[in-house]
Amino acid sequence: MASQPHLEVRNLSCERQDRCLFENLSFIAKPGELVRVHGKNGSGKSSLLKIITGLLKPAAGSIYWKRQNIAELSVEYSQALTYLGHKPAVKSELTVLENISHLLSFNQRQAELIQIEQVLSILSISLYEDVEAGFLSQGQQRRIALARLWLEDTQLWVLDEPYTALDNDGIKLVNTIILKFLQAGNIVILTSHQDTDELESISQSIWLNS
Amino acid sequence: MLSALIKNETALVFKKPAEIFQPIIFGLITITLFVLAIGVDKTILSAVAAAVVWVIALLAILLSSDRLFYSDFEDGTLEQQQLAACSFITIIGVKLLVHWLFIVLPLIIICPIYAQLLFLQDQSVLTLVITLLLGTPSVVLFSALGSALTLSLKRGSLLLGLITTPLYVPVLIISISAIQAAQQQLNYSGQLALLLAMTLVSVLVCLPAITAALRLNN
Fold first, then answer.
1. What is the CATH code of the structural domain delimited by A7-208?
2. Do A78 and B83 touch (CB under 8 A)?
3. Are A206 and A37 in contact (CB under 8 A)?
4. Which domain range does residue B19 map to?
5. How many structural domains does chain B have?
6. pLDDT tens digit string along A108-155?
7. What number is the ipTM of this complex?
8. Is B143 within 8 Å of chain A by CB?
């Protein structure tokens, strides 16, 4: 993936249940930029992120990835994108390791076992690698989902409330990996109710009011 | 890439072995009750045997596909599958293939025993198995379509039955007519060709429809 990441949101409008959530939203994210989406509950933050990933269709407007409409990109865009939603996509009946290989298989990625174990120890869940995820706490399950940030080789992260259920150490870990990812010239878009000073200074803010 | 998908889906099915045995047990219970109600009357039982086994297969598939996509929807896996680099339709296709292999195929393997319990004529047993092998893939696809359409409904089971049973009817009629032809020692290759055609067409039509229906739930 040689070309520089570039994301443009142009005149985006979103409607859900016949209610207009936002209209004419535009912004551009350049390499190394972090976009934070602010807004009250129900203001359309998650919907905006889903539209950016392509999961939802906007009422009007379009998204451009590397100056091409994402509606025409599909596979190329999927390969460049990591989306972490509200729901962590962690299966309670699979073990931690199985969960990670399950998540990676969708994106045709196979990480070396050593690499996965390294990431699990960074996330301090390596002790539980053969434990079924259903037995772990909310925060630990969240950490399984977060492991993808270390293992997937993408250029755009769309993170919906990545700090949910995490302790202070967990939040620091996420911030560190986000900073590292940005320094490599990639783009992050995230929503969060938590204020994190480390990221505040470098981010561009979008406010949604309904 | 495909092998990793198949491996992971299989691992998921084997985490719940009860689901593999459910159709077989369901069949055994139905046949036991049926025989108890009618009595061991060879002529009556052998006349209805093929139909009973086919109806068991249809209902077992309907029951097992009720919550086919539900846990994936609840835990967010469905979202990740839609964003997957190896295309949503491939992932759903693999999921349904694994579902057929481990939930439906065991029932088909065991159904000659069920046919024996109902005194089906020996020469019809092979025809029964062949019609099941050719017909059930399309039944699984129809059920998955119903399951995808009723995913977001709290009590979708009733609606699922209403949507899918009309689609089952042609498969059932053609299969039974093949078995009847076999009983009369007539040629039934036409019926088998029809069944195969239905399965192939339903792969082409249902798979895109299932993915479209699942995308509505975002």
1. 3.40.50.300
2. yes
3. yes
4. 2-215
5. 1
6. 777 788 888 999 999 989 889 899 999 999 999 999 999 999 998 899
7. 0.89
8. no
